[in-house]
Every structure is written in C-alpha cells, then in structure tokens.
Design goal:
Length: 814
Amino acid sequence: MKYGYFDDPLREYVITRPDTPLPWINYLGCQAYFGIISNTAGGYSFYRDARLRRITRYRYNNAPYDFGGRYLYLRDDASGEFWSPSWQPTRRSLEDYTCRHGMGYTIIRSKYQGIEASTRYFVPLDENLEIWQTTVTNHRSQAAELSVFSLIEFCLWDAQDDSTNFQRNFSIGEVEIEDGVIYHKTEYRERRDHFAFFACSEKTTGFDTQRDAFLGPYHGWENPAVVECGHSGNSVAHGWAPIGSHHVKLSLKPGESRQIVFVLGYQENARDQKFDPPDSQTLNKKAAKAVLTKYLVPCVADTSFEKLRRYWDELLGLCQVDTPDVHTNRMVNIWNAYQCMATFNMSRSASFFESGIGRGLGFRDSNQDLLGFVHMVPSRARERIVDLAATQLPTGGAYHQYQPLTKQGNNDIGSGFNDDPHWLILGVSAYIKETGDWSILDESVPFDNAPGSEKPLYEHLRRSFRYTLDRLGPHGLPLIGRADWNDCLNLNCFSDSPGQSFQTTTNKDGKVAESIFIAALFVHAGRELAKIASHRGLPAECASYLAEVSKMEATIRKHGWDGEWFLRAYDDFGRKVGSKECAEGKIFIETQGFCTLAGIGLEDGMAAKALEATSRLLATEHGIVLQQPAYSKYYLELGEISSYPPGYKENAGIFCHNNPWVIIGETRVGNGDAAHDYYTRINPSAREEISEVHRCEPYVYAQMIAGRDAPTHGEAKNSWLTGTAAWNYFAITQWILGIRTDFDGLRIAPVIPGGWSGFKATRKFRSTIYQIEVQRAGSGNQVSLEVDGKPVHGNLVPLPPPETKTVAVKATLR
Ligand code: BGC
Ligand code: NOJ
C-alpha cells in the first residue's frame, strides 16, 4: 500500500494523505539554518546546533501525534469554522491534500469548504531564516471573509534545558513586538547575543506571544481560544512559554487569491551593538529589519526559491545515471544524494528519531558520511575533516562525538571506541581521491583542539594507524575498547544496573576482548594509508604499513576464521563471538561484509564462503540481518546488543548501514546479481509498495528494518540519519555501477546484474564531465575501455589535460 508517489521530474515525493504511518519528514536548509518538517508541518528549526541553538520548540515522545510545528489556522469569519491547511493540529477532513517534499523545500496544499491554501516552506541559500509562502484562494461562488493565524512556539535556545528546567524557564521568556514583527529575545539581556524574529508580509490585525493566552485554559493546539473566537489577544509574554502568532484578515472575492509571506529568522548582533539605544535593554533590530525588508516580498521569495532549485540542479547534476532500474535511478539521481547531504549536515543529531539534544557529530559517523557527500561540496568536506581531526587525541584515539557549534569533543561520551581513528583515514582518502587535493595532508591541525599541538593532518593519519598497533590483544587482533562500529557490542562493559550507559560504563580494563571487525578495518584503511604514503614519497613508510597490513591479514586468517565464515570478536574471557561454537550469535554480518570489502580471502575462497554463509544464514527478503541466531536473553559479557528484543536494532535487526559492505563484497567476487539484489531489498523506493509494512518514508533509507526474529519483520525505524545513506550511495555508484574515484583518475569497473544490457552515466570528476556508456557484450565483468574513441588499457581513465570539459568513456563488459 502506498501513501503517495514519486514525481521524479520535479524531484519530489508527493504524499496524498496526511495520516502516514509515521510523520514523513523533510529537511529545510542545507548550510547553517536548518529545520525538520513533517508532512503535516510538524517539526522545528535551529541554527547550526540542534541542541544549543534551538529556535522553535518540539514535543518529544509524541510520534505519531506529531505536535508542534509551523502551523497556520484558517478561519471562516462568517461561520466561525476553522481548520489547518496542513491537517495538523485541527485534523479536519481536508480535500485534495498533498504534501510535496522536494530538495530543501516542502509544499503543503489542501482545500476545505472551497478555500484552498498552499504553503511553500524553504530556507533561502546563504540566509539564516525560513520562508513560508502561503497562497490562499477562494474557489467559492461568494466572497469569503477569512482570518489567518500563524503559530510557532519558541524554544528557549538550549533544547535540553528547555525541556527540563522549568523552575527557571517559566520566568525568563521575553519578547518585543514592533510593527507586527515578533522578536524572541529570552536571555538576550544577559549572555546571549542572538534572537529570533517572526514576521508577516500582510498587515496584521493582532498578535499573540504568550502561549496560554493564545490557547486558553485547558485548550489544546487543535482548538486555540483565540482562533475559536477570531480575535488575537495581543498578549505579551513575560516568562512562561513565548510563542509567535499573527492574525491577518483576508477578504477574498470569488476566484481571488492572495499570497502571504511569513519569515522566521535568526540573528546575531555584535556584543557592543546588542541594544538600541546602546544604554537601553531594547533589541538592536537594524540587521533583522534589513533582512525582513528584503524577504517579505513575494517576488523575492520566488527568486530565492528558484536559486535553491538551481543549487540542487547543480549538486545532483554532478552524478546522474540512467540504468534499466527505476529504483536505482531515482535513488542515485535524487534521494540518496539528497539524504547524504542531510546526514552530512546533521550527523545523527536531529530527526524524528534523534532528539537533537543527545548527540552532536559522531567521529566515525561523520567520516563515513563523507563517502556519499564529498563529490557534492568538497570544500565543506575538507572543513569537516579538519574539524574532526582536531578532536583526535594525541594517542591517535578520538572523541567519539563533538558539538558542531563549539567544535569541542564531547566529554560525556569521551573516547575509547577503538575503530574510530581508522575512519579518519578513509574520510581523508575519499576526499583526496575525489579532489586530487593532496594539500589537505599538510593542513596544520591540533590534537584535542589544544593550541600549540598542531601537526600536519598526515601525522594524524599516522597516529590513527599506530593507535591499533599500540592496542593489540592476546591473538594479535585489535582490542575492542568500549565498542567498535557496533556500538552495542560492549565486551568490556559488564553493565548490571539499569540506566548505565553501555557505551561509557567500563568495569574491566579490557586487555583481552578483541575485534575482528577492527582488524578488517585496519587492513582496509592501512592499504589506503600506504598508497597515501607512497604518493607522498615515503616508500619505506608505505612498505611498513603494508607489512603490518599483511601481518593483520594473516592473523585474521588464523584467528578470525571459523571454518565457513569470519568470526566477529573474542570476549573478555577470550571466548569466540560469532562462531558456530556459540549458542546464539553464531554469525555476524559486519565481518563478512568488511573482510570481503577489504579483499580478505578473495584468492583462497574464504570471501566466497563467507558470502555464501551470509546469503544462507543472514539474508531475508527485507535485507540482511546483523547476526543469527538472535540473542534471546541478556548476556552481561556482551552488553547492549543483547539488551534489544530479538530482531531489533543490533540484536539481529536488518541494520541497513552494513548491508552495503556485503554488497561491495559481492562485487569484489564478481557477483553483480547478488549485489544488486541486496541493494534492492533495502532500497526505500523499491519498498514503496509495502509502505504499510515499512512505515518509514519511502524516499530515504532507515537505519534499521526489523529482522526475521521480530514480530514486525520488515518494519523500518530511524529513518534519515544513518550511515546507510553514504554507504549505499558509495556501493551503488562506485562498486555496482563501478564509477570509482581513485588517486590517479576515475576507474570504470562495473559489476552489474547479468540481465542489464548496460547503462549510461554522467559524472563530474575534478572539473571534467565524464560521459560514460557501459555496454554488455558478454556475461562477465571484464572491462575494455575507449576514451574519446581511443582504446585504453585497464580500467582507469587517465586524468585528462587540465581545462578538459568533457571526456567520453565507453566501457564494454565481457
Ligand atoms: C544504539 C546504537 C547507537 C548507540 C549510540 C545504541 O542504543 O542501538 O545504534 O550507535 O546507541 O549511542
Ligand atoms: C549508530 C551509530 O551512530 C553508529 O556510529 C554505529 O556504528 C551504529 N549505530 C551501529 O551500532
């Protein structure tokens, strides 16, 4: 069953009924001002940091109720009837409801009793504000006397404090109202130098800024007293809960339309220019007023919307493919790339499943996110790499997370996740391969953000590699620390009290538990580092990295192989995890995926065996589960993984992030059919038809789909913010379609399904556009290349002379 459809030419998903199984969201903003918006206009906005600079309030634990958002109420002043054109919060039976989620914008349209309202929400490029462009049309045969009420609820900036510290917060709220513009300035009197403003292009007949005055006692958002009676209270918030609401009266003749522009913005003032006049406590509104004068004009809103569209045309235009599979095309060309931007911006901080108050940017997460993002805005990828590296510790370890606003490592979670450092190597290598910008290695970056500790980025990579060698366990495999990629495999935690963090509680000093996953990651990252060292003219260093890599590979073969598949780990007692010897959790996906992706066991058949076991024991119609059999009870020595009921999350859920590792593994053994089949099983577009089962948005990946042990097998959760986005983008574009960035050029090495006759693609790579045509002339993956009509040996397209605009590549598969 579907709740809408894809409009590919417009790059939109069109939701045709408001009661989706869960709120289906979109992101507004892609630089500094961000918002989440659901298909019923729920959600909130923030500046840079969802926790520390929250602009509007949201209520947690209320999905699928989804209250709190960018609301409008329309009121028929003749009858007193009122409704919300975005369905929430009044939930009337609307006609012709559609929500179009597009690239950085959302348009919600509906009709009620002959009155149509359509609102386009977006954040203009390079501005710290959002625009709601509302057009109201009277389709009745008589004139209509209408009232429009806008509504947002302000957050008192620090979203964590805002939702807990009521004894203070009920007394600090402050606003100013001038010329119908509502300014929210809580804490501006003291240490803050920023405020929010909410304005409207039409003349207002009233306003409200005090929530309880607007709602009335014991009323909810669905029936605010002010809307019921049709008159704003002109309330001024002193403490309690500041809101912003305008009241606009519209008289519309039959057939007449009127547009209203609302602008919600964020503004900072210089410390010495906070007040106007300077010796007063009145906000200096000069900068905000200038912005408003510009944007409260419908045609300016239109042109900034067109600019946003062009921005996305260009970004998505960097890589476009035309394959025989509509779901591949749609995801690569539109939604997967778009989701990669969201994960790059948000990491795992703000979605309908991530509260925005918990985590900042994750070290491993953000490095992996680069894989799907770096081709879009390499300069921002570079900046991110430098920020991440600055939270690395002198030991080579890293803060597991940092706050984007302060760029400081997050002390609550600390470090000790022993896989973390290697992702930096992969992030940097992806960046260099995409851009050819080797200078990033000489960028001077501190450790732990400590002034004076700066070293070239290259030194950071060296220490990342060294970190593992300094922490080897009894079998010569890497010690796992708090956890590796699987945050829930906590082999040193032994947590026995409710509420303890599985990630940070450690009662063992951990000199035994080893991770075969980190070993595979070490091999993969080590090879990348060796290539980087060789390019830097450091042959001895390169050789020493390769020697360590071979040693680790041999250790994996010796101590990391279970006979039919790769082991997962050794626990604190030196017992195997992920082995046929185990009662539960006999086989795990991570090592089957990452070992084969890293090319371990390609020559001797281990890789093929591991992939065969994966297909036999882990693959389901909804994707590949994380391990089997699921843990049926809590194991003190394994940690959080066994805390989940069977089939959910890391306990045998389909953890989509690691499915592409197996997909890449399948391409490495040359099995394009299996690779694309796995790709399709978790492709959200291919799952659109079963939206009642999948339940999350059909246009973006979810972190998890419930596994076969779960009563709700096939149900997705945690959509949007997941490493699944970048890894699937990477797997399909670079490994299945095989358009692979490399240090010395673009490689064309497709491993596509046997049934495909070929495909076409356009890929911009280091300022040249590659027009690629792949044709199948046999059933294998052997590539013959022709570049601009001339045969080229191997599968690497040599870099063309600088200034070359386009290169035509023809690849024949035999
Ligand atoms: C989740 C993991 C996540 C971890 C991060 C756990 O509860 O299951 O997926 O990585 O929290 O804090
Ligand atoms: C989500 C976390 O953000 C990520 O860092 C981790 O690798 C996976 N969960 C698996 O636990």
